[in-house]
Amino acid sequence: MRSKVIAGNWKMNKVLSEAEQFADSVTGKLPKDDNVEAIVCAPFPFLPSLVEKAKGSKLKIGAQNMHSEDNGAFTGEVSPAMLHELGVTHVVIGHSERREQFAETDDSVNKKVHAAFNHDLTPIVCVGETLEQREANETMSQIETQVQKGLEGLTDEQIGSVIIAYEPIWAIGTGKSASSADANQVCTYIRNIVKNMTSENIAEQLVVQYGGSVKPATIDELLEQPDIDGALVGGASLEAESFLQLVEAGTK
Ligand SMILES: O=C[C@H](O)COP(=O)(O)O
Q1: Residue 111's pLDDT is what?
Q2: Ligand 1 centroid to 168 CA: how many Å?
Q3: How far is the C-alpha of 146 from the C-alpha of 157, rounded, in Å?
Q4: ipTM exceeds 0.95
Q5: Which of 52, 75, 207, 241 is least enclosed, having the fewest CB within 10 Å?
Q6: 9 in Cβ contact with 92 (< 8 Å)
Q7: 167 within ligand 1 shell (Cβ under 6 A)
Q8: What is the top EC class of this enzyme, as a single word (predicted)?
Q9: 3-state secondary structure of 57
Q10: pLDDT, tens digit, 9 for 90 and up, residues 93-135
Q11: Distance CA 59, CA 92 (A)
Q12: Boundaries of every domain in the chain
């Protein structure tokens, strides 16, 4: 059985003291259940302190982006090796905000996914359609392109350990979540794309999350769906109490 994976994506929020307070509030209270994983993907300056505070707890710490190269003349960038040495375990790749505002493409996403595996980081690969694409019935073709290109050239074993986050762009930060049935339909489709790219059983290992206005009040219904294995959560992951409720939902 696949574990449920609840990942908070703090985006560009909090200052270090608030991040540390959050870690102090949640680390001792996370459920011991092995069937749920809890991750916080935080801004770069918080990572060393959060990794330290999460030691010995169930909380894992992720980054929200990285460069695909190991090092070089890339002013302002952070490499996968830097993240790995800090003790970061996960990295969000290709979030729609990065695709839209920082010109990330399926090609750069693919390079970063390979780089993540080269440095023992688990990539959380974001895919999703705009409202215009949904209304034009282009959701599935958009998702198919993003998944196929994003995972191109990976081994079956690597594909089986990727986390894919399905995040319809119109649902992000809008308070307007996809219905659980609609979200599940796309997550099933993602699993089928991966089934066609890999050998037997790999797609069954794949963790597919839903993201987009997930709240403690809506997570149960989402996690009851057969192909939704967790959530990538922005706003509702910022408060310790709400994050704990989301992770608790993964134990049910
Ligand atoms: O990465 C997280 C998503 O962009 C969802 O953000 P949200 O939960 O604030 O809608």
Answers
A1: 98
A2: 10
A3: 19
A4: yes
A5: 75
A6: yes
A7: yes
A8: isomerase
A9: coil
A10: 999 999 999 999 999 999 999 999 999 999 999 999 999 999 9
A11: 16
A12: 4-250
